[in-house]
Amino acid sequence: MALNTTSESDPTFMKPCLRFELNLNIEHNSSYESGLITGIVLCILLGIFATLSNLSAIYTILKTSSLHRPSNVLIVGLAISDFFAGIIAYPCLVALQLSDLLQDITKFCALAKALWFTLMILVSVSLLTLTAVALDRFLALHYHMRYCQYVTNKGVAVVLVFIWSYSCLAGVLLVYLNREDTLRAHFIVLFVASLMDIYFLLKIYKTAYRHSRQIQVQHQSVQPSSNLSQVRKSLNVMYFIIVAFVICYLPYVICSGAIGVSSESSGVLVIIYTIAEGLILLNSCINPVIYYWRIEEFRNATRIVFKCIR
């Protein structure tokens, strides 16, 4: 049985559903409904994990003075985005799947619009914050002696406020005001940010490789400074975060393109797209795992903070 499509004759009604109009013509057989139920359970569990793990990361950094560095302020920015994914995006996706399961087209389209708005903001914040992370590590590696003069906690906080403000404004204009010109401009901004990420990563890799070769040639007669060693460790964390971002977001981009050129909907396409959406949100669970796995100082600080709470 398909969803109730009492309003599908109205073209303006379908627009808020965005890609979700594909679901309107999908046969709700037992397999499809079992997939929805499984997705609901997984989203609930992952949403809880994303919320608690990112809240723990935020609290640890804020309560530990030794972690009050620009690079960690940027981690707080990413963790806040992932925290909102846990408390807003995951519940929206659960409610959307429930409305699909119950075949309630009115709630389905409203929730689809809310989820798209939330994802638009969180995707923009995550990508732009990653660009700020890459720029921060570029400056730390290239100008490590003067890095503290160029980059401050307050300055990074201002950048994060700007990123959130821009992303929220873009989300309102794109989703609720349907501004086509804004859509093109926003995608250009995100595309430029992606190119900047690639540029900074290449420059960072080239510089780090050159430093490594210089040390090998000198047979370790000149040891790198502690600050430089710390920068190199943070580079590994950045690489893991960016690779996780690409792995989680690339399937969504590919599926969106497939939907854009598809002439008809299919259950397989909808399920694949839903999985791709889940991968985007899964990124909010992966990031805190990377923090605790790759940053020993972070693990130790968390143990101390929560031991004091008890």
- How many beta-strand runs? 0
Estimate what percentage of residues fall within beta strands: under 5%
Could you give the order of the helices and strands? HHHHHHHHHH
How is the quaternary structure best described? Answer: single chain
Output the structural class.
Answer: mainly alpha
Measured distance between first and last alpha carbons: 53 Å
Taking all Cα atoms into account, the compactness measure Rg is: 22 Å
Helix content percent band: over 70%
Shape: globular
Describe the largest sheet.
none
Number of helices: 10
Contiguous uncertain segments of 5+ residues: 1-16
Mean of the pLDDT scores? 81
Organism: Exaiptasia diaphana (Tropical sea anemone)
Subcellular location: Cell membrane
Keywords: Cell membrane, G-protein coupled receptor, Membrane, Receptor, Transducer, Transmembrane, Transmembrane helix
InterPro entries: GPCR_Rhodpsn (IPR000276), GPCR_Rhodpsn_7TM (IPR017452)
